[in-house]
Design brief:
By secondary structure, the chain is an alpha+beta fold. The protein has 41 helices and 35 strands.
């Protein structure tokens, strides 16, 4: 039994007993749990905690003048930034570094050890309601963990703040909390160890000393921890973002390179350093001396080295992998010492051959090849390799680029290696058999760089601040959403909150084509001399009117003094930040010369070989830029966070000097601003400052009202209503929700607390009497309960023995009967198997019936799904004939069912598809592309839509779409915005049924000029139309054949009988002017005299017709069916001859090429170049 000693009762607020009570003091009398005591007092039995003290949030309200409020929403002047900072200062002076804003935790780095992270404190927060204990990191961790367990929803904890604010330490403390408080097993302990030991490894390779923090994370980290159904951690996964690779080759004054270099030199064994060619003095290495800060008093590199080596072993690195990894680290140091000198031509030459030898051995590459790759640049242009020498500046760039690429890719490999060791592995067979039984939930931890504003801000700060803009946007959206959902669930009217929506800034950075990242990528990729200055000019030209963007050129006279000519300023949600464009293009490109990639791809070091994939050499696609990669990674991170229930920890540092007990108000104000804390508080306080469930509120304050004290027997809602009425709450001060009471003003709550303090004093004397009475009553009750329970136990024991004896006999008889039945069944089965080939008899009838039953049940489960499914279970010998009959009946039934569902329109469609297959399958390249597209009656305008939707020309669409509602006319290749058939043409064809219409391109027989036409197919003829004119009518009886090539072009030729001129002249009269039509019939010779007029109307007198259609397969299939010329469609391989005029022939030559091209060749032929889509 546990007891909460010291402080006040978490329910009613009465004073509890001392932290270490005597046995006689264990009962705690308070106002929350009444018993039948004569003086109507009540008792509250609490648990005795590990440290004996558990202060609740409500009990600390009485100390608010000294230590401030534990939740900023209780600040009376919540809009005042000064009041906010003063509350932080009060709590910081009392070593209270944690404060809430609703459910958000604000943490101030104390820069000293506090005794608040012990196992006793972990147990104190374990399984306790969020507001029942004082603010702490563990409260956030436990609340997320309990939500994950009870609601089975993925959770995430977002930890943000600037460098040195304690984000990494907060992540460690949360992982330690889960390692101590979660259920354990041998496998779980292994996962816990690996989760904890991943931190020293990633810190060694990804952290460094900066001006603001001695252990600053130079990369963003998101870690998922997987929990099984018991709530035990069983796996994990880490995502890393934007490692600061530039730190490998350059550090600012007072800063260091990544920890691993110094740990290796300081802690590495002599034998290891000798194998790696290293000395212990960091001053010997060019990459380690630029910051002039090789040693730091607060960092013990030797101890950190030992911790890191142990961590590698725990994670699962073997000796060979450790050796390969350290070889790469050493190679980076040697790369920094590679020096160059210029020859007579000004070309760079390597002067440090000793370093090349070390690099060749450590990276397992050819030394001469590496030397040449460092001083030459290889370019592949039009399939040819061009090698050009580098000057000194270019060679230094190539060396540094290689160092950054090797270290950056090795870090990514290291993260993947850690992920493999943390991957969840099913440990029990039932987990694989029943995956739902062992389903896991995920809790994510995001430790990512905070908003950064330095004296000099470059590409890295731009990306980091862009990330913080996205996180702030997500934070405000989710905070508003959770507030609104709580109000709606409680039936409280939601009042819209005005807040700064920083989407405008996010769009400025990430918008396609017009955002800063898009402009930066465009400048990096464009040919020509692109520089950082041209990038700035392009920015000024594109986003000059944006209210949050400013440059020296766009600023007014006053503002220009604070802006350089190579700088631009963004107005972030946290304030203005000025960025220098110097280095933007180089850092964004992050390019590595091809010959250096080739050298690394040939490495025999297993890690380098995995980091440099050979596919990079053959992939002609340009790799994504650093900014685009970061934007895409950030977008995926936002999706991950949106899919989880978030909790927030906002970390702050009290001063830049890393001193304990020093509170820099200016620095704190700056962090409050860029963390958006006032904005968050304003959103949280937009409605009601305090809300509690009715049960909790009534339990705490019921002693203030005679009607609710000492006990309330009705609904909690009614009890709270009586209580607030007695306390004199005004209607505007509170609202009653469905399960909670909402109090608008902190002063209302504080007045209630003060009244409770007065009430506690008046109950003090009654408390002492109640304790004595309770002790005596408890002893009497214990004696009586002991006697009564012993007597009852003996009676129950005798009854249990009697029942057990009878039940064991019953179970034995049942078991014997079951065994007897099993033996008889097995005997019959074996005897039936022996006589299985005999005629049916009593000995084998059971076996044969079972075999038949098994076959029929198997057949029932495995019947063919459709007519194309030829599978059929193998029958036993006695059922072969029956199996064949059943198979035939099944097939007949499926065929009958399928045929019954086919509509007449769909049958016609299938028939056309079959004819198209017979004509073109395996012969025409673009035939496969036509297979999935339905054939329709027209490809022209409104008439075609009517034909598809059941208008005057048919209803294929309606009949087919009746069972396929997801299809639209556009899936038929139909566009309702196309040209329509002219009404004059429809009037001329009023007696003829129009079967098909399609837009075509007609090529003149003389000159091959392309002209837009329409091809109309009726029952008896094919008609070529130009707008309102009928240009040519071809009777099917005079159509001798159709020619088309085997390539993917869309040309075809209609071969017309050469004596079809009279037919054409009769056609021409349909288009002659009324004056000509009024003449009486004349001989053919006189009609020839009107040739000029006929030609003026666009008619042709003789020759075959050369057409092009985008739907050539559909068009030719329709034409072949209507003309009954299915066997007259000729598919030619090389060329097609056609009649131009009387005695004249034209030729179309077809050639395979990369793209479609139709032109007249010098030899007078029409040349068609078409790509070959399918190899036959």
């Amino acid at each position: 039994m546990k007891f909460r000693g010291g402080g006040n009762c978490g329910s009613c607020g009465l004073r509890e007993l001392p932290a270490n009570p005597q046995p006689s003091q264990i009962p705690c009398v308070c106002a929350c749990k009444p018993t039948a005591i004569p003086n109507s007092l009540c008792f509250c039995l609490q648990g005795l905690g590990a440290n004996g003290i558990r202060l609740t949030m409500e009990s600390a309200l009485t100390a608010r003048d000294r230590v401030g409020v534990q939740d900023f929403v209780l600040l009376e002047n919540f809009t005042s930034e000064a009041a906010f900072i003063e509350n932080l200062r009060k709590r910081f002076k009392e070593n209270l570094i944690y404060t809430y804003i609703g459910s958000v935790l604000v943490s101030v780095n104390p820069y000293k050890e506090l005794e608040i992270y012990t196992k006793q404190n972990m147990e104190r927060y374990r399984g306790v309601s969020f507001y029942e204990v004082s603010p702490h990191l563990y409260a956030i961790a436990d609340n997320s963990y309990r939500s994950l367990r009870t609601e089975r929803k993925d959770q995430c904890i977002l930890i943000s703040g600037e460098s040195g604010a304690g984000k990494t330490e907060a992540t460690k403390k949360i992982l330690q909390y889960y390692a101590v408080t979660c259920p354990a097993s041998q496998q779980v302990e292994t996962v816990k160890d690996r989760l904890l030991q991943s931190n020293p490894v990633l810190e060694a390779f990804g952290n460094a000393k900066t001006l603001r923090n001695d252990n600053s994370s130079r990369f963003g980290k998101y870690m998922d921890v997987q929990f099984d159904y018991r709530g035990a951690p069983v796996g994990g996964h880490i995502l890393n973002y934007l490692l600061e690779k530039s730190r490998v080759v350059h550090q600012n004054h007072g800063e260091r390179n990544f920890h691993i270099f110094y740990q290796l030199l300081e802690g590495g064994e002599e034998d290891l350093l000798r194998r790696l060619g290293l000395e212990k003095n960091p001053q010997q290495y060019h990459y380690l001396v630029k910051g002039h800060c090789a040693r730091v008093s607060s960092i013990n590199d030797k101890n950190e080295w030992k911790i890191m080596r142990r961590a590698l072993s725990v994670i699962g690195f073997n000796d060979s992998e450790v050796e390969d990894l350290l070889s790469i680290v050493a190679s980076v140091l040697h790369l920094g010492n590679v020096q160059f000198a210029a020859d007579e031509q000004g070309n760079a030459q390597v002067t440090t051959e000793n370093q090349i030898k070390y690099l060749a051995r450590l990276l397992a590459v050819d030394g001469s090849v590496l030397r040449d790759a460092l001083i030459h640049k290889k370019i592949i242009a039009k399939g040819e390799e061009l090698v050009s020498p580098l000057n000194l500046e270019q060679a230094a760039y190539a060396r540094d680029a290689l160092a950054k690429a090797v270290y950056g890719r090795t870090f990514s490999w290291l993260v993947n290696k850690v992920n493999k060791s943390l991957a969840y592995k099913a440990s029990e067979p039932s987990e694989e058999k029943f995956p739902g039984w062992r389903s896991t939930t995920v809790l994510g931890l995001l430790d990512i760089y905070g908003f950064e504003v330095f004296q000099h801000n470059s590409f890295e700060q731009f990306c980091i601040n862009y990330c913080n803009e996205k996180l702030q946007q997500l934070f405000i959206e989710l905070t508003l959403k959770s507030e609104q959902e709580e109000y709606e669930s409680e039936g409280i009217a939601w009042e819209p909150v005005q807040y700064f929506n920083n989407k405008i800034i996010c769009d400025l950075v990430e918008e396609k084509f017009k955002g800063i990242i898009s402009i930066l990528d465009e400048e990096c990729l464009r040919p020509g001399d692109a520089t950082d200055t041209t990038f700035l000019e392009k920015l000024e030209e594109t986003v000059k009117n944006h209210p949050h963007f400013l440059t020296h050129k766009l600023a007014d006279q006053k503002t220009r003094k604070s802006l350089g000519r190579e700088e631009f300023r963004l107005s972030h949600y946290a304030g203005d930040v000025t960025y220098s464009v110097a280095g933007f293009l180089d850092k964004n490109n992050d390019l590595l010369f091809r010959n250096l990639k080739e050298t690394m791809c040939n490495s025999e070091n297993p890690i380098i070989n995995q980091c440099f994939d050979r596919t990079e050499l053959t992939d002609k696609k340009r790799p994504e830029t650093a900014a685009t990669q970061f934007k895409n990674s950030l977008s995926k991170l936002m999706e991950i966070l949106m899919s989880k229930e978030p909790s927030y920890i906002r970390c702050m540092k009290p001063n830049d000097a890393k001193q304990a007990d020093r509170f820099d108000e200016v620095l704190i104000r700056h962090q409050v601003k860029y963390l958006g804390l006032m904005e968050n508080l304003r959103v949280r306080r937009a409605g009601f400052a305090y809300r509690r469930k009715y049960e909790v509120f009534l339990q705490r304050y019921k002693s203030l009202c005679p009607e609710t004290w000492p006990t309330w027997d009705g609904r909690p809602y009614d009890g709270v209503a009586v209580l607030v009425k007695h306390l004199g709450y005004k209607p505007e001060e509170y609202k009653m929700g469905r399960t909670k009471i909402f109090i608008r003003f902190p002063k209302t709550l504080f007045a209630t607390e003060d009244a409770l303090e007065v009430r506690k004093q008046s109950l003090g004397e009654a408390l002492t009497l109640a304790v004595d009475f309770f002790v005596k009553t408890t002893k009497m009750q214990a004696t009586w309960r002991g006697f009564y329970r012993r007597k009852k136990f003996l009676t129950m024991k005798h009854s249990a023995i009697t029942i057990q004896s009878w039940w064991r006999g019953t179970l034995g008889r049942r078991k014997a009967a079951k065994r007897k039945w099993a033996v008889e069944t097995i005997r019959r089965f074996i005897k039936g198997f022996i006589y299985r080939n005999h005629p049916r008899c009593p000995e084998n009838e059971y076996f044969l019936d079972y075999i038949r039953f098994s076959f029929l049940m198997n057949l029932k489960r495995n019947l063919p799904k459709n007519v194309l499914d030829k599978s059929w279970p193998t029958p036993p010998p006695s059922l072969c004939e029956a199996s064949q009959l059943l198979r035939r009946l099944c097939m007949q039934n499926m065929v009958w069912t399928y045929c019954k569902r086919i509509s007449p329109e769909w049958k016609q469609q299938l028939e056309q598809k079959v004819i198209a297959s017979e004509i073109f399958k395996g012969k025409k390249d673009n035939y496969p592309q036509s297979v999935p597209r339905l054939f329709i009656n027209t490809r022209l305008g409104e008439w075609g839509l009517q034909s598809l939707t059941g208008g005057r020309k048919g209803g294929l669409m309606n009949s087919f779409l009746a069972g396929n509602s997801f299809l639209t006319p556009h899936l038929f290749g139909f566009n309702t915005g196309r040209e329509e058939i002219n009404t004059k043409v429809l009037q001329a064809l009023e007696n003829e049924a129009l079967k098909y219409a399609v837009p075509v391109v007609k090529y003149d027989r003389k000159g091959y000029k392309a002209r837009a036409r329409q091809l109309l197919l009726t029952q008896n003829s094919a008609i070529v139309v130009e707008e309102s004119k009928i240009k040519q009518r071809i009777d099917y009886s005079n159509l001798t054949g159709i020619s088309v090539s085997s390539l993917s072009d869309n040309l075809f030729v209609l071969h017309v009988h050469c004596e079809d001129n009279k037919q054409k002249l009769r056609l021409s009269t349909a288009c002659l002017p009324p004056l000509v039509l009024s003449l009486s019939p004349v001989p053919y010779s006189r009609v020839v005299g009107t040739k000029a007029m006929i030609l003026k109307n666009g008619l042709s007198f003789q020759g075959d017709v050369v057409l092009q259609s985008d739907h050539v397969i559909e068009t030719l299939t329709k034409a072949a069916i209507l003309a009954n010329k299915i066997n007259n469609v000729n598919i030619n391989q090389g060329s097609i001859k056609f009649t131009v005029g009387q005695g004249k022939e034209g030729i179309i030559d077809f050639i395979s090429g990369s793209e479609l091209l139709i032109a007249k060749a010098k030899n007078g032929h029409l040349t068609v170049v078409a790509p070959r889509l399918n190899s036959r």
